Each structure stands twice: as structure tokens, then as C-alpha cells.
């Protein structure tokens, strides 16, 4: 396993970011441009991608994130046109635009060439894996691995199997991503997975705040970065619910729904259930999470220490 090339099909932003990340972690990778181009257009694209990759690698080098010469990493990236040579691939990443028809066409070409033991992963950011798996030859070896732009920087990759995907395929994908320095999270067969749904909700509400004149675009972003975003850099959103109190969130939701006449703020069924069961958060030992056997005060102290470190980092950056 992991002895041959990783093939990234699609040479756009997400594709060359994945290729860079994979190469940084010791794998040989073929970055495949499958779009029709003239020879001059292809040459210009390669030069542009190579320049961007080298720029990113220099940044990693400056921050002492890599400990080998930039040129050595670049040598592991091979540019390829089309689909020839896929026969020896063990891990193929489809990184073409979020268009079902385009993906279907790519899968047809890829599946004609790869072996039955090769893993095929889509970088779709929103499509159901089950809908995509209908178009591949070996659905048991197919799943979504949603890398987030910029792919070489964001630690998260969402792993979303289709119902037909084998457990071995999921385990292999997770192992590969960890070897690439990523933090894989396995999701269900649902549109948008986790991050796209959370991101869409937050982005849309931010735009509504501007639309309603609550705050300027600059101040909305500042409030997010200095408030929620700051806190979420050290712990998760659902842990935050438990910290603040499940019942507090419930009351805030009810108030916002009534005052803004907005159904989107109505408490979800799970929140109502937690309140009914008196799973009210850290202060009672149970909430979204169960804190049995956990020293809650020590947990809170560790989070606060992380916030102080982050605060100092921000202060140092601001001079």
C-alpha cells in the first residue's frame, strides 16, 4: 500500500493544493489536467501552478513546517495530461468542478483505467456520495473526501462514504489522510456533510445582519473573529453549548425566533430533548456530551489557558 502514485484529476485550485499537501508528506503525485487546452494554454497553466506551489512551499519553509529543500518536494509532483497511466494508481482524487455532469464524465474515463483495488475519492463539497457512487464501476471503493480550500493549509478533510462503500475503504482513506497530516472526520451520506452546512448557516446569517443594517460588513467580520471565532479556535461549538448551558441556548433560540419572527431560530428537536431530560451542560455533568469521570474544572482551565496563549499570539502579531 502507498507505494505508487497518488493521482489528482483536476488541476484547479483545490487540485493543486491537494497535490502539494500529498507531496509534502512524501508521496509521489500526478497532477492531471483533463480540460481541453491548446499547448500554449497548458504550458501557461503549468507555469502558474508551479509558481503557486513554490510560493506556498517557501511560506512553509519560513515557518519551519518542512525540513527538506523546496525542490525535493516539487520533484515529487508530476504534471500529466488526460487519463493515460492511471492503471498503476492506488489512490485517485477527483478534483473537478462541483458539477454532477462533469463528475460523471470524469468517473467514466477514470473507471475505464484504474484497477478494482484502487480507491477513488471525490472532493465534492456538497453532493451526496450515494448520488455520485451510481456513476462508478466499483462503488465499494468510492467515497467523498472533502478537502477545504486552501487544501494544503486547512487540517480538516471530511470523509463521507456512500452506503455501498466498504469499511476497509473508509479505513484506508482515513489512514491516508492522517499520513498527509490531515484531521479526517467521518460523516454520513448527507448533502453538505458537516462543514458546508455550518458554513452556509453562518455566512447567510452574516449577510442578513448587513442586509438588516445591524452592523457593517467590517464589523460583522470583526465580531466573528474577535468573539465566536476566537473561542472556537480552542474548543468545539457543541462543547461551547455545554459550557454556556443547554437551557441558555434554548431560551435564546426561543427569544430570537419570536422577536425576529424567524423559524430558523426555533430550537431543534435535539435541543428540546436535552432540556426535557435535564441534560443542561457541564454544570450538571451532562449535556450534548457526557462528562462522567471528567474533571470539568480542569477541562475549563485547559481551555482558558489555550485562549490566553491565543490572546498573547494575537497581541504579539499586532505589535
UniProtKB/TrEMBL annotation:
Which residue numbers delimit the 3-hydroxyacyl-CoA dehydrogenase C-terminal domain? Answer: 192-291
Extract the GO molecular function terms from the UniProt entry: L-gulonate 3-dehydrogenase activity; NAD+ binding
Q: Which keywords, in A-to-Z order, does the entry hold?
A: Cytoplasm, NAD, Oxidoreductase, Phosphoprotein
Q: Does the UniProt entry include the keyword Cell inner membrane?
A: no
Please name the GO terms of the biological process aspect recorded for this protein, alphabetically: fatty acid metabolic process
Q: Which Gene Ontology cellular component terms are annotated?
A: cytoplasm
Q: Where in the cell is it found?
A: Cytoplasm
The UniProt family comment states: Belongs to the 3-hydroxyacyl-CoA dehydrogenase family.
Q: How does it assemble?
A: Homodimer.
- The protein here is known as L-gulonate 3-dehydrogenase
Native species = Caldiarchaeum subterraneum
Amino acid at each position: 500500500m502507498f507505494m505508487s502514485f497518488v493521482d489528482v484529476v483536476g488541476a484547479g485550485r483545490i487540485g493543486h493544493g491537494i497535490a502539494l499537501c500529498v507531496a509534502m508528506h512524501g508521496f509521489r503525485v500526478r497532477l492531471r489536467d483533463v480540460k481541453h487546452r491548446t499547448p500554449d494554454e497548458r504550458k501557461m497553466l503549468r507555469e502558474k501552478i508551479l509558481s503557486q506551489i513554490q510560493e506556498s512551499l517557501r511560506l512553509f519553509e519560513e515557518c519551519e513546517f518542512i525540513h527538506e529543500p523546496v525542490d525535493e518536494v516539487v520533484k515529487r509532483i508530476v504534471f500529466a495530461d488526460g487519463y493515460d497511466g492511471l492503471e498503476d494508481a492506488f489512490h485517485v482524487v477527483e478534483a473537478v468542478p462541483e458539477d454532477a455532469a462533469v463528475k460523471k464524465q470524469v468517473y467514466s474515463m477514470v473507471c475505464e483505467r484504474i484497477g478494482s483495488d484502487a480507491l477513488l475519492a471525490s472532493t465534492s463539497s456538497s453532493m451526496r456520495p450515494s448520488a455520485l457512487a451510481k456513476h462508478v464501476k466499483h462503488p465499494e471503493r468510492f467515497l467523498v473526501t472533502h478537502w477545504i480550500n486552501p487544501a494544503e493549509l486547512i487540517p480538516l478533510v471530511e470523509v463521507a462514504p456512500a452506503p455501498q462503500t466498504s469499511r476497509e475503504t473508509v479505513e484506508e482513506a482515513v489512514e491516508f489522510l492522517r499520513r498527509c497530516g490531515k484531521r479526517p472526520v467521518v460523516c454520513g451520506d448527507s448533502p453538505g456533510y458537516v462543514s458546508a452546512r455550518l458554513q452556509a448557516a453562518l455566512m447567510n446569517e452574516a449577510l442578513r445582519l448587513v442586509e438588516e443594517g445591524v452592523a457593517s460588513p467590517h464589523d460583522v467580520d470583526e465580531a466573528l473573529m474577535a468573539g465566536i471565532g476566537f473561542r472556537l479556535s480552542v474548543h468545539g461549538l457543541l462543547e461551547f453549548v455545554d459550557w454556556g448551558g443547554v437551557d441558555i441556548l434554548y431560551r435564546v433560540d426561543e427569544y430570537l425566533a419570536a422577536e425576529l419572527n424567524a423559524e430558523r431560530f426555533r430550537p431543534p428537536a435535539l435541543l428540546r430533548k436535552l432540556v426535557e431530560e435535564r441534560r443542561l451542560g457541564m454544570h450538571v455533568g451532562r449535556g450534548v456530551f457526557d462528562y462522567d469521570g471528567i474533571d470539568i474544572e480542569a477541562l475549563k482551565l485547559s481551555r482558558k489557558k489555550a485562549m490566553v496563549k491565543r490572546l498573547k499570539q494575537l497581541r504579539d502579531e499586532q505589535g
